[in-house]
């Protein structure tokens, strides 16, 4: 897979290193000469150019990329890069970094963004995920299709504890993608049972999140009541 990363700062270089370790081709683009540090990511391709300019993106052969990551520290630049990658070069997957949470509403399909990653929001979500049981935590927003990656730790009192996955009437537009049980990562099948303490990861439409949280957190009825 060929990936172009706009922004060769600490974030861009870190992403490049991970992708290279996983066997992908990576091109780093930055207009600041001081950011071109080939020795830090020697296996990557480097391009000194302005990623907001069509001529630069032509030189980068963006049409050959499977993914473009807009990872600069400037939200305006990330939006322009995303829009050009999607509309001018038809890049299948565009991921954009959100630096200021106030701008998050802009990072959507209209600007060519498939996935928006807000570092402040993600850090907040990870804190919530670590301390919350029974509460739905939004980990990642997928702009395309208005879907989110959400997590909920199944509480002891949930009525679904001990229920098989295939017997649950999940809300529309939701999909259980992973069960994390202790140190194990399980791909759920219909015959798997849900256990209290399971971390459940879903891809769900935003409109279904409250319904999903109610379903998973509902308490067992008291037989005496």
From TrEMBL:
<protein>
    <recommendedName>
        <fullName>Trk system potassium uptake protein TrkA</fullName>
    </recommendedName>
</protein>
<dbReference type="InterPro" id="IPR036721">
    <property type="entry name" value="RCK_C_sf"/>
</dbReference>
<dbReference type="InterPro" id="IPR006036">
    <property type="entry name" value="K_uptake_TrkA"/>
</dbReference>
<feature type="domain" description="RCK N-terminal">
    <location>
        <begin position="1"/>
        <end position="117"/>
    </location>
</feature>
<feature type="domain" description="RCK C-terminal">
    <location>
        <begin position="137"/>
        <end position="218"/>
    </location>
</feature>
<dbReference type="InterPro" id="IPR006037">
    <property type="entry name" value="RCK_C"/>
</dbReference>
<dbReference type="InterPro" id="IPR050721">
    <property type="entry name" value="Trk_Ktr_HKT_K-transport"/>
</dbReference>
<keyword id="KW-0520">NAD</keyword>
<dbReference type="InterPro" id="IPR003148">
    <property type="entry name" value="RCK_N"/>
</dbReference>
<dbReference type="InterPro" id="IPR036291">
    <property type="entry name" value="NAD(P)-bd_dom_sf"/>
</dbReference>
<keyword id="KW-0406">Ion transport</keyword>
<keyword id="KW-0633">Potassium transport</keyword>
<keyword id="KW-0630">Potassium</keyword>
<dbReference type="Pfam" id="PF02254">
    <property type="entry name" value="TrkA_N"/>
</dbReference>
<keyword id="KW-0813">Transport</keyword>
<dbReference type="Pfam" id="PF02080">
    <property type="entry name" value="TrkA_C"/>
</dbReference>
């Amino acid at each position: 897979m060929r990936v172009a990363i706009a922004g060769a700062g600490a974030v861009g270089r870190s992403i490049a290193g991970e992708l290279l370790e996983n066997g992908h081709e990576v091109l780093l683009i930055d207009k600041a000469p001081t950011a071109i540090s080939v020795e830090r990511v020697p296996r990557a391709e480097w391009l000194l150019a302005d990623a907001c300019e069509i001529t630069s993106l032509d030189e980068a052969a963006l049409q050959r990329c499977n993914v473009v990551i807009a990872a600069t520290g400037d939200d305006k630049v990330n939006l322009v890069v995303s829009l050009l990658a999607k509309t001018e070069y038809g890049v299948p997957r565009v991921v954009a970094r959100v630096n200021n949470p106030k701008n998050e509403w802009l990072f959507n399909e209209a600007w060519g963004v498939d996935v928006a990653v807000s570092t402040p929001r993600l850090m907040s979500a990870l804190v919530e995920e670590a301390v919350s049981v029974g509460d739905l935590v939004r980990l990642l927003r997928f702009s395309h299709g208005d879907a989110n990656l959400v997590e909920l730790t199944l509480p002891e009192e949930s009525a679904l504890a001990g229920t098989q996955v295939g017997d649950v009437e999940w809300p529309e537009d939701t999909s259980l993608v992973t069960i994390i049980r202790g140190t194990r990562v399980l791909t759920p099948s219909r015959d798997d049972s849900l256990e209290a303490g399971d971390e459940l990861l879903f891809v769900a439409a935003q409109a279904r999140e409250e319904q999903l949280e109610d379903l998973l957190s509902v308490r067992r009825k008291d037989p005496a009541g």
